Every structure is written in C-alpha cells, then in structure tokens.
Amino acid sequence: MSARVVLAGGGTAGHLFPAIAVGEQLTEADADVEILLVAASSDRDNTILAQTGLPAAFISARPFPYGLSWQIVSSVVNLLRGLIQALGLLRRFRPTVVFGTGGYVAAPVMMAARLLRIPCIVHIGDAYPDRTGRLLSRSAQLVTLAFAATAEYLPGRRTQRTGAPVRKQILSASHVQGQDLLGLQPDRFTILVAGGSQGARSINQALLAALPRLLAERDLQIVHLTGKRNYEAVKMQAEALGATQPTYHCLAYLEQMGAALAATDLIISRAGSSSIGEATALGKPLVLVPYPYAAGHQKYNAAELEKAGAAVVIEDEELCASKFAEVVLGLRRDEQWRTKMAEASAAWGQPGAARHIAQFLLGM
After folding, report:
1. What is the mean predicted confidence (pLDDT) over 129-140?
2. What CATH number does the domain containing 229 carry?
3. What is the pTM of this model?
4. Which of 37, 91, 213, 312 is the most exposed place for a label (fewest CB within 10 A)?
C-alpha cells in the first residue's frame, strides 16, 4: 500500500513553507506517495500553493488572540468549523499519517486525526514551543524540532531535532542567479534587509534612518524587502533620501527568495523559524531583530542563534539608526568576525531537514 500523507500548515509563511518543503521531498523520495496539503482559506495560501503544484485543500481557520478578547469567540467558531471540514477531508483521503507544522491551521487537522486514530508527526519550529505546539505534541507519535533546546519544554515526548524544513528553491539557488535577478553589482558587499512577508515597521524605519550613513560606503549595496503593506511609503521615503539603484533596491516581496539569500553577504531580519532555517541552510551570517510580541517566541530563537555564534541580536526596543549602522558596518569591516559567523551559521543549519522528515513519514 502506498503512503498517503496529509500535510497541515498555513495561515503564515512560517507554517506553510515547511509543509511545502516536506511535500517536495516526499514526491522526490517516492513517486507513489499521495499527498494532500491542507492550508488556510486565504488568498495568500491559495496563491503560494498554486505555484507549487502540490495537491491542496483549504479549511476555515483563524489565529487565537493572546489574552482575553472578544475575538476568542469567532476563533472558537472557526476552529470548530475547521475541525468539521478536516474530519471530512481525512475520511475521504484516508491518510496513513498526518504531519502538522503547528499553528491555527494544523490544530483542527491534527485534532481530527486524533479522533480518527491516524498517526501524527508534528513539527515545532520555535526554540520555545507555542501553546498549539505543546498541545499537538501530546498526541503525536514523533515531534520534530528546528531547535534542539525545544526538547526540554516537552518532557515525555518522543522528539528528534531535524532542523527547519527548507524549500528546494532556497537550497538550489546560486549567487550568480541572485545577482542577475536583482541587478546587483558583483564587486559590492550586499546586505539583505527583510521583515517577513508582511514586513516589519521598526526594521524599515531604522534602515531608512540609517540609509545616509550606510550608502556613504561606496562598496555597499542594499536589497530591502519592505513587505507589501509598507512598500509605497518606504519607497517614497527612500527616494526622498536619494536612495536609488544600483546601491539601493526596494521591493515589496520576492517570490524567488532563495536567489536573494544566495547573493547576500549579510542578512538583517526578524527571528522566525523559517527565516532562520533558510538563512542558515545557506550559511549566512545574521543580524536578528526578534518580534517582541506573540509571547516572545522569536526572542528564544534569536538567543539560540546568538549563542551558537551565527547571529548578532538587536532587541526591537533598542533598534535605531545609530545601532543599525554600527552593527552592520562593524560586520562589514570585520571580515574575520563575519567569516566565523558564517561558519557557525552553516554548522547550525540543516539543509536536509525536509528530507529527514519525509523519511519519517514514509516509515510510519
């Protein structure tokens, strides 16, 4: 009997991309495997999955707010609706195993799997597991981890540190491909500034304030991914400062993220698990500005990378033009420091994570 695998994850890129990465490896490892990727009923998830070619289904789901809020009521209603939809999907598809990447899409699917007595593997991407990850791990046959340190928060669970699953388009990208795609100068030091698919206002504003000092360095170029909702405002401010190509490249979002990462000498970003997994899979040094909200999970992620020597951490409340420029230019001028960080990043990264998880799923 061929394996039939449901991959559950979506709503955010950090939960959807790892599911896609594992789906890619499953199809590569076994031509007979049947896959269904369950994501959120949203334009973003639909658009991303349409480009992958992976079979997909969509359910109603929305995040639970942190703390007491009237939004809890609608979140519970959507959870129950998603659970009913997931039960129907699983009964029709009859999977041999369900893999969830955490988050509010995976929750109803894995709850349905438990009710139907279907084996489950759950992946926890953060160093400190969120409430959904802790809940789902209780009934999982195996919990795969991006961070080894997460295991201490999951006593009694069967865990395996695999690293963060990374998509093939990230792993296969080349330096030259990125330079050609973005129109970069091959002899310049390249900095990638990214706040995730939705952008990060504090990072955007700190970079804009630091631009005059940074662009005074004649051998430096910046690729700035602003996020779609911030793009127009950031672009106008940058142009007012005289920041233009070829030294400053302003983009809302980039589908070919692997090319941008491959062409980059230094990455400044939030500290989400997928962002860290992608950068370290390519051995890139990092400056991390962890998102200070959502229970502070990114602070734990950033601390682990800093402890490993792969990142410099700037807390969001400390982020300003002078701090931004000081750290970036310090790394630019200290090649030995940067090289050590790159080596630590490569040592921490796990480019084979998705393949290892696929092997676990095929062996269930």
Report:
1. 90
2. 3.40.50.2000
3. 0.92
4. 91
